[in-house]
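Students often ask why we bother predicting the structure of a whole assembly rather than each chain alone. The short answer is interfaces. A chain on its own may look different once its partners are present, and contacts between molecules only exist in the joint model. In this exercise we take three input lines together and write out one structure for the complete complex. Read the inputs first and try to guess which parts will touch.
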Amino acid sequence: MLLEVKNLSHNYDLESSVTDYSLQDINFMIERGQFVGLIGHTGSGKSTLVQTLNGLIKPTTGQIIIDDQDITKTKNLKEVRQKVGLVFQYPEHQLFEETVFADIAFGPKNLGLTEQEVEQRVKNALEVVNLDYETFKDRSPFKLSGGQQRRVAIAGVLAMEPEVLILDEPTAGLDPKTRQEIIAEIVNLQQKTSLTIILISHRMEEVARLADRILVLDEGKLVLDGTSAEVFQQQEFLQEIGLGVPQITEVLMKLKNKDNMIATDIFTIEEAKQEILKLMRG
Amino acid sequence: MLDEIMIGQYIERDSVVHKSDPRTKILVVMFFITTVFLINTFSGYFILAGFIYLATMMAKINLKRIIKSIKPLTFIILFTLVIHLFMTRGGDVLWQWRFLRIEEEGLRLGLFMALRLIFLITFTSLLTLTTSPLELTDGLERLLNPFKRIGVPAHELAMMMTIALRFIPTLLEEAQKIMNAQKARGADFESGNLIKKAKSLIPLLVPLFINAFRRADDLALAMESRCYRGGENRTRMNVLMLATRDYLIMATSLIYLGLVAILL
Amino acid sequence: MPLIEIADLCYRYNQDQDWILKGVDLKVDSGEFVVIVGHNGSGKSTLAKMLNGLLVPDEGEVLVNGKATSREENIWEIRRQIGMVFQNPDNQLVANIVEEDIAFGPENLGLESAVIKKRVEEALEVVGMDKFRRNAPHNLSGGQKQRIAIAGILAMHPKCLVLDEPTAMLDPVGRKDVMTTVQELNQELGMAVVHITHFMTEALLADRIIVMDQGKIVLEGTPQEIFSQVDEIKKYHLDVPQLTELAFRLSQAGLDVSPDIFNVDELVEKLCYLKSKI
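Now the answer. The structure tokens for the assembled complex follow.
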């Protein structure tokens, strides 16, 4: 067991942020190497939840156990933040160094690594996000394109070499091409290193296709927890809480409701096509 | 905390003071503050206190709220008092212990200075408690308008204040977000000596400034698109107009001036 | 006369840089709903800034109601007629109270107080934000802020609304609300709309879709015409809605399904019908 959340609740005191709901009695476990999708409409508590997971927010009650250690009790938050890497929304807004190298090295340096280790980590991180080390290391992050800035920012967290990587809408605001590339890079990384990933996304078809498992939050409560197939069966419920299902799921479910023998746990267009053709050809 | 900065301390109430023209309030408060420094008798301060009480009643604001606004400055007030107590010489010696000595003049001046500070804060709070920042900005712009001819950029100053009011909460929120993001990369904003702490702010301040410039660029484009071209030919939705109550308030202030003049 | 007429427009930010726009020709009629799509760097945002004279052409012409944006004396009338909403909801509101912000445009036009009040009132109602008139923008959601930005433009009584990726930073709920508002403006008030977006599902609402690539218009047509060319769209690195792609693949595989099906029920019914015939 890598990560276990037990009876986690959090209340913001009334004076501070009003944009996010508190969390109420959340329980779940995540195995090493799982790819978890986290969905819920704005204000459902997703951001609060992921920030409690790396100790940025101290929950009011409950336990978060990572590697047999309860991080809500620990004093060494740096270690927690190394283990649980968090990529915020629009992470390129946090770039600050003069060179790409220095910016990515910020995390590893804070961990107190040697220069060689830092360099190695920067190299590795840039490789993951498909930016050439020699070409980019000395360039100013502020003079890169939007997509490249996003990649450098993600690399900055990857260089911490976390055991769990949390990505809060990593493709928000990007154009389709860059979005697909970055998603492919994340998938690639996960397949190579079997890193544990928690992905927050508003794109249901993306989550459905990528995640082994989906957690659904609504008003601070964990309301669904299961595989893509299990979660997206609940179309009506998801719509009630302001979420939807991927279009192909909708097509397949509607076909099934019309007394057709058809599988509904399919999340790629190619497979859906095959399934429909099979049905049509009897 | 955010809201405090956002709306200042403004408390919405249905009162004569709230409804009166911001220009009236600014002028009256400025005028009262001047007298705070002119008065040097306790009876004068007594009358001043009476007027404050009257104003809070009229504004339907709890006296406690005023006292609350003094609290953050308690230290400075006490500090002023203590310095005068022990440093200012003159008159009879009231108390002595080894080299510490309090003389009459020190006590008098100490109390005066402390009272002046308290009154100063009270008057500004009265203004900000009963006038929204936007009204204040409007009022200031109108008051400064006559000085345009001698080169006071009245409209520009007011526009700057408006934009600042609009963006301070956004920037604070952003600062919090950047701080969290850098903490997630192992940044440490708390420990270390002063130099180390100052250095640790770079990862926060650089992005904050860069984003602020980006926002400024965006905003300039948006304002231009909305036909903004400075104060020329610009009208306002809410026109400030002096009403009977404004004249009444000014008249009351004059009566006060008379009283103070007699007592001085 | 078309509302906006662009002829052979070329533009670059710097003399020593590549051309951003390379000969764009475009007409927008009154009341038309045009969607412009294209990946980053295709020149669509630059084109948007041309429409109200924030940028002026190096070569060619942009005419609004027959008046050139390059002439200084036309610029304020053009900006009044062509309202512009930008991507970042946080960076385009000026005042810290909603109704004061909406009044900003009319105030710049030098209108009388009573007229401004009436326009603010109407604009708030059109975007469905009248309950929030006294709120501070930073307490609103992204979608709400964008609707306030739209209201601020409406209060200037423009003929055309140009939206430069207004939904890019919004969540699905905010995106839907903004698009519903935009659609209402177009259909009920007859306002022309030029909407720039990455979201191909939003392009379905258009009368006409324009695809830009490398500073040029490469495809142009009704949603039906554009979406039936799935492979072509993909070539320009654009998204194809799942449903459209599924229909397209099915038709390629020999089913009698047309790829310009835009809603799930339509496809399901068609499939059921085809199956019953077997």
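Check your guess against this: The first strand of chain C starts at residue 4 and ends at 11.
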